[in-house]
User: Fold this.
Amino acid sequence: MSTEISELIGVAAPATIGAVHGVRDDQLDAPTPCTEFQVRNLVSHLLQVAVNFQDLAQKKDVDWTAGGDRLTGDWRSGFAADVRDVRAAWDDPAALDGVSPGMGLPQRTLGLMLTIDLLVHGWDVAAATGQPYDAPPQLVAAGHEFLDGMLEMGRQMGAFGPEVPVPAGADELERLIARTGRDPRWSPA
Assistant:
């Protein structure tokens, strides 16, 4: 069985897993469009997201403290496995019921938060490492839906910066990226 959220995770997974898998070791200290993170920190964050959202699907509390560098062992394959596991956790329709006891948000909102994390941070990693990134329209639409309801709260919490003006001819992914406070045409210096 699947849910709307697990299907969105499935749509986000190929590009984000591909971006993480494509990171070369010599790129780990490179800057990213997410200014507080280098590639290493951003990939560590994605690894944490994939694990923590498994517990959030089951309405458990999670620990968001950084916990150090997660890039140990075969972290690329580990991330792919964790994304498969987080998708499986959100396959259960019960994952979408109610409010998260630890986060205080509707479970569906948390599921959309996960998909936008995969989408935007996947794009961050790809941009920082010179890789292409493809986000299907239904994923971008879900990202806009999440931002429509949570953008201001996210800005107050420091998760998103002020919106960046988009250049003429910007596509929907670029508009979404700009809403999060990133320059959609960012490239490494």
Remarks:
- Helices lie at 4-21, 39-57, 75-91, 107-128, 137-156, 172-179.
- The mean pLDDT is 94.
- The CA atoms of residues 113 and 166 lie 23 Å apart.
- DSSP finds six helices and no strands in the chain.
